[in-house]
Write a structure and sequence with these properties.
The complex is a heterodimer of chains A (about 250) and B (about 950). Chain A is an alpha+beta fold and about 250 residues long. Helices cover about 20% and strands about 40% of the residues of chain A. The radius of gyration of chain B is 39 Å and the shape is elongated. Classes of the chains: A alpha+beta (about 250), B mainly beta (about 950). Chain B: It comes from Fibrella aquatilis.
Chain lengths: ~250, ~950
């Protein structure tokens, strides 16, 4: 049912397009709180978790720059650039291949993700999460945002999103979308990952909405991808190793 | 035009559903959204949520006419939510039962009060909850210092003003009532609650308009409302404590009973941490484990960026072979020390951490009594033949050390930061040594010793060391531009007395007087080494990919040493001029360097160079009262190149490498013009003429990791060529066989190493195999009796580990490590030696029913040197059985047995540049221990190994 209203909404949004800002690029900073992440590792004792939290509490969270290109009907989420860099810019490293492409009108998903030593391509139909809307409001980058929550059944994460009511596009960062406005902040699993929009600029971007071709990619569907992730988490926990060094939290 | 189209669009939908049926399964909702004045609101967000769990089912937006329509709604009750920028969100219950289309007519949204919107929503970037008239602040978003009152907290809330008297105004109106958890707090005066309650105890602050008390009493709502504030109390604010204590005792073979106790406690809240730690044992556990250390030091366990010497890493001078004990808390890991030791330690630590200010301080006391009974054998090569020395020694070392540390890091503003670090140590030590030595000539006709010695020494010392540095770092608005400056002061003061009592017999001496020599001396040495340091660094980004970095380091070191040696054979206490010394040395180092760094998509390259100048001015004399002193003046200038590379490639491949020149400054002991005769048969002397050793090094390494198959590989090579290597030249007195060692500079030495390691699963999560190996080869040139001996050493090491983790109740780890050392000597090929050190181990862990765990480790150590006919085979077997007690699993009871076969001994052997050596020292052998642990956080029993802090 949500799908129909979404379609309708897209129609409206398209009609309103020239009056409103519905096309552009949002930049996000993606921060990982490792001390909190470690509390999710089942093989660590409470003592080890406390030790880690106390030892590293002054360390800055790990931060990455992400980019979301959106139109009313599609979006592409990726790293903001090919390489990550230290805060002073003096050191760079390679960013893994990561492209999450969604077509909201055609209900299509194309995800390219380098993980577990391979590059995977997920092509499937779009399945949107079931959102719950809360009562909190908050301003992010001058946009009045409302809160929505959902649950990721594969990774078992609580998700909290803040969406802008004045940017009527269903797009959002990572794999979260389907709200009445652009998601400007995403909180994955009670603050372990915080994605915060740092800049939203409106401009025609339809030409940038292309998934780059990847060689030697392994194709899976949504179900296969979920199984891969679940299996990896279970195996690594058994090996007493942190699964999230090698997959996205 | 658009207006009409949209209307048409809506009508199509509406008529479509209106024509359908009388009992529809899908419903539609329509209404028009306006503000309180009737102006149509275009683009209001309209959402329909289920009543049960607020799940979003339908949503849309109002058109320019303010009208909206939601279609395809299932039967049931919903919450309609309409939001619009600048308006209060509106919620309304709607049911869909009969009519196919529910028309709510006109819905009016109230504007958010200007104060609330502009001040509250705009400035507070933190979330606010708005429910009807109520605005709710989450206090987690508004930080106040610990101990603050609610009033201080309210001052931080946007839209709330607290005046000097404590009167509160919220959204422009005076707050007449303050409730706590919905109830009045003691008195009518709102200030009672806000002044007396702690901010830390409050989780939420709600502001709303309530009917006046009068209206409530009379039941007549006169329409007047007053601002009310409700303070919601926290269930519990974040704080905690954890700690553990372990105690155990048991019998030992051939030794008195063994016992150990260890405990720590840790109390913390968000900004503060206080911890205590203590240990006492006679089971050779000299220091803390990493886990204990982290629990003790908390957020101050590791501090990056405290290095005050800027510039190429590792390129700046470093001092080799320091004898000083570390200024920081010693960590022994799981290592059991040599000999037999009794240990006690205790410490307290306090940390205070906020975003702007971080303070840490600690005090740690430790003392150790170490007994060593050692037997050793050494072959020394000389052009004239080889000497064999056999010795037996009995030593007791006692030392106690107080360590304090203090660190403060202050963020002056977002671009400027200053750090001060102090680490200090005060130690007292004393030692008793009794030893016997016999020296023989190998291949001589007689097998009787030619020289023998009996020594009975004792010594006491007091030392103080401190290291202080201030580091200032400044960043600029321009990304990548930075400036840093540091100053440092170090002091090492040592006051030691050594009493030597040695009897030496020289059986080959022709003169009767020379056949027996008695040495009785008191050697008092007072040394002071002070260092002053300063460093500057500036980084300028030339482009996004290229950075230019320049630095300057200054270091001035003043040594002042006064040594008085008295002959105590008679009561006259005559001064021994040949051994007494007074000297001062001033070393100055200056280094100026610059370099470029290129970084792009994971490829990082640095290229640079520095000029380093080293000046030594010293003077020395037999005694400080003497006016005539000998002087040393040396200047040494070097150019130091530096190249570094690392490259991050696809699929977890990583490559790194570099070229650098390392400068090793001689240690103070090597530079001191002093004679050490504490072992009268082996005299060592310092050399004030020593120059820094320079190593030109290249290295290259590669890493690969496949998380899908759990396979990883790493390997690399490095090569170093050494100029002015510091080696110990040996001379021997042909008649007395007394050896003298002096450090000298010799060029031509080199070293090479290769390492490689691969790890892969035989069966995922069940069995893993590790295979590794390394080769270390080197050439050292050492003058022996004036002749240059070239020693070529080649060491091979191969190791493999099999980890079997088939079930939750059983694990097995098998290890094999084979080490082969070869040494070839140019002046004495007959002495070419091979040492073999192998270690095989098997480790099994079982979890039995009833929560009982059993673990057993068997180690087989094999040491061999055929030249000596030396062979030691040590089977060491440890086992333990333990059980967690209680439901909460906070307690553990354990019975352990160490070295069940009673064979443990410390063995060391090597084949070095001028000698082949082996020794055996008595250490803790078989003992049993019954121990109990209480851990507030719960004891973890894991049969798997390899945890990062186990």
């Amino acid at each position: 049912m949500l799908r129909y209203t979404l379609l309708f909404f897209i129609c409206c949004a398209t009609l309103l397009a020239h009056a409103q800002n519905t096309e552009g690029v949002a930049l996000y900073s993606r921060k990982t709180d490792y001390a909190k992440l470690l509390t999710k590792l089942t093989y660590l004792s409470q003592e080890q978790k406390d030790r880690y939290a106390n030892t590293w509490k002054n360390d800055e969270d790990w931060s990455e720059k992400m980019k979301l290109v959106f139109t009313p009907t599609a979006s592409l989420y990726s790293f903001a650039s090919e390489s990550g860099e230290s805060p002073d810019g003096k050191y760079t490293w390679r960013n893994k291949d990561l492209f999450f492409y969604r077509e909201y009108d055609k209900e299509q998903v194309v995800d390219v993700e380098e993980m577990l030593g391979k590059t995977y391509v997920v092509e499937d139909t779009l399945r949107l999460p079931k959102w719950k809307i809360g009562n909190q409001v908050r301003e992010i980058l001058g946009h009045m945002c409302l809160v929505a929550t959902t649950f990721d059944p594969v990774k078992q994460h609580n998700i909290k999103a803040w969406f802008a009511q004045d940017i009527p596009v269903p797009a959002g960062p990572e794999k979260y979308a389907g709200l009445p406005g652009l998601i400007l902040e995403l909180d994955v699993d009670e603050g372990i990952i915080i994605l915060e929009a740092t800049n939203v600029s409106f401009k025609p971007v339809a030409a940038d909405l292309k998934v780059p071709k990847t060689k030697k990619a392994k194709k899976v569907d949504e179900k296969g991808y979920a199984a891969l992730i679940k299996n990896h988490i279970a195996e690594q926990m058994k090996e007493q190793q942190n699964p999230y060094w090698t997959i996205r939290y | 035009m658009k207006h009409r189209l949209l209307q048409l669009f809506f009508w199509c939908f509406l008529s479509g559903s209106a024509l359908a049926q009388t009992a529809p399964s899908r419903f539609a909702l329509q209404a028009t959204v306006t503000d309180t004045l009737g102006a149509k609101l275009n683009g209001a967000t309209v959402m329909l949520q289920t009543v049960t769990d607020s799940t979003l089912t339908n949503y849309g937006r109002s058109a320019e006419t303010g009208a909206f329509v939601l279609k395809g709604i299932k039967r049931g009750s919903y919450i309609l939510k309409i939001t619009y920028v600048g308006m209060m969100p509106l919620t309304k219950n709607v049911s869909f039962e009969q009519e196919a289309t529910v028309d709510l007519g006109t819905i009016k949204l109230k504007p958010i009060a200007k104060e609330l919107y502009e001040v509250v929503v705009r400035t507070a970037r933190a979330p606010l909850t708005i429910r009807g008239d109520t605005v709710e602040y989450d206090t987690r978003a508004f930080k106040v210092p610990p101990g603050s009152s609610v009033e201080d907290l309210l001052r931080k809330l946007p839209g709330v003003i607290v005046d000097r008297e404590g009167n509160i105004r919220a959204q422009g109106q005076e707050v007449k009532k303050v409730l706590v958890d919905g109830k009045q707090f003691f008195s009518d005066d709102p200030k009672t609650a806000t002044k007396n309650l702690q901010a830390e105890a409050i989780s939420k602050v709600q502001v709303f308009s309530d009917k006046t008390e009068k209206a409530k009493l009379t039941g007549v709502d006169d329409g007047t409302k007053e601002k009310t504030m409700n303070l919601e109390l926290k269930e519990e604010f974040k704080k905690g404590g954890f700690g553990k204590i372990t105690g155990g005792a048991g019998p030992a073979s051939n030794l008195s009973a063994r016992a150990e106790v260890r405990g720590n406690y840790n109390k913390f809240n968000k900004t503060q941490q206080f911890s205590v730690i203590g240990l006492a044992n006679n089971t050779n556990q000299t220091g803390l484990s990493w886990a204990d250390y982290q629990d003790f030091r908390g957020s101050n366990s590791f501090n990056w960026n405290d290095n005050a010497d800027f510039g190429f890493g590792g390129g700046f001078m470093y001092f080799g072979g320091g004898d000083e004990e570390s200024l920081t808390i010693p960590i022994s890991g799981g290592d059991r020390g040599n000999g037999l030791s009794d240990n006690q330690a205790a410490g307290v630590n306090y940390n205070f951490d906020t975003k702007k200010t971080k303070i840490s301080s600690s005090y740690y006391f430790s003392q150790t009594k170490l007994r060593s009974e050692t037997q050793s054998e050494e072959n020394n090569f000389f052009p004239t033949g080889t000497l064999n020395t056999r010795s037996a020694s009995n030593q007791i070392n006692r030392n106690s050390t107080h360590r304090i540390s203090f660190r403060i890091e202050k963020e002056l503003d977002s671009l400027n930061k200053i750090v001060f670090v102090n680490n200090s140590r005060f130690a007292t030590a004393n030692a008793l040594l009794f030893s016997n030595r016999d020296i023989r000539r190998i291949l001589s006709a007689t097998s009787t010793p030619t020289t023998s010695n009996t020594t009975n020494n004792n010594s006491t010392s007091q030392s103080f060391g401190t290291n202080n540095s201030i580091i200032y770092r400044m960043n600029f608005k321009k990304k990548g531009r930075s400036f840093a400056a540091s100053i440092g002061y170090q002091l090492n003061a040592n006051d030691a007395t050594l009493n030597i009592n040695a009897e030496n017999r020289f059986y080959e001496a022709l003169d009767l007087n020379d056949q027996f020599r008695l040495i009785r001396q008191r050697q008092a040495t007072n040394s002071n080494v002070a260092q002053y340091k300063a460093s500057l660094q500036y980084v300028e980004p030339l482009s996004k990919k290229v950075f230019w970095e320049s630095f300057y380091n200054f270091n001035l070191r003043n040594d002042a040493v006064d040594r008085d040696v008295l002959d105590t054979r008679t009561d006259q206490l005559l001064r021994v001029d040949t051994l007494s010394r007074y000297y001062t040395n001033n070393y100055t180092y200056n280094r100026l360097g610059t370099g470029f760094r290129y970084t792009n998509k994971g490829l990082n390259i640095g290229v640079g160079g520095a000029v380093q100048r080293f000046t030594l001015n010293g003077q020395y004399a037999f005694d400080q009262t003497l006016p005539v002193r000998q002087t040393i003046d040396r200047v040494f200038t070097t150019f130091i190149p530096n190249v570094s590379l690392n490259f991050d490639m696809k699929n977890n491949k990583f490559m790194y490498g570099g070229y650098n020149l390392r400068v090793q400054i001689p240690s103070s002991r090597d530079l001191q013009p002093l004679v050490d005769n504490s072992n009268p048969l082996f005299i060592s002397r310092g050399n004030p003429d020593l120059l820094p050793a320079l190593t030109h090094g290249v290295n290259l390494g590669f890493q690969y990791f496949n998380p899908g198959s759990f396979t990883n590989y790493y390997g690399g090579v490095s090569y170093g060529s050494i100029t002015n290597q510091i080696v110990y030249a040996q001379t021997i007195d042909p008649r007395t066989l007394v050896r003298t060692s002096v450090p000298v500079n010799v060029s031509g030495g080199n070293n090479f190493s290769f390492y490689s390691n691969v790890s892969f699963p035989l069966k995922k999560t069940k069995a893993t195999l590790d295979l590794g190996g390394n080769i270390n080869a080197g050439r050292t040139l050492t003058p022996i009796n004036g002749e240059l001996n070239q020693t070529n050493t080649t060491n091979y090491n191969i190791n493999t580990r099999l980890s079997l983790t088939p079930a939750d109740w059983f694990t097995f780890y098998g290890n094999a490590e084979i080490g082969i050392g070869n040494a070839k000597y140019s002046i004495s090929t007959a002495e070419d030696a091979q040492t073999i050190s192998n270690n095989y181990s098997a480790d099994a862990n079982v979890k039995l029913p009833g929560g009982i765990f059993v673990s057993s480790t068997f180690n087989y150590l094999l040491y061999r040197n055929q030249r000596f006919g030396f062979e030691r085979n040590l089977p060491i077997w440890n086992a333990a059985v333990y059980r967690l007690v209680g439901k909460a699993k906070k307690m553990e009871v354990r019975l352990s047995a160490f070295d069940l076969l009673n064979r443990n001994v410390n063995v060391s052997q090597y084949a070095g540049p001028t000698a082949v050596f082996n020794s055996s020292t008595r250490t803790l052998a078989r003992y049993f221990m019954f121990s109990m642990t209480y851990n507030m956080r719960g004891v973890k029993a894991s049969i798997r190994k390899g945890g990062w802090d186990d």
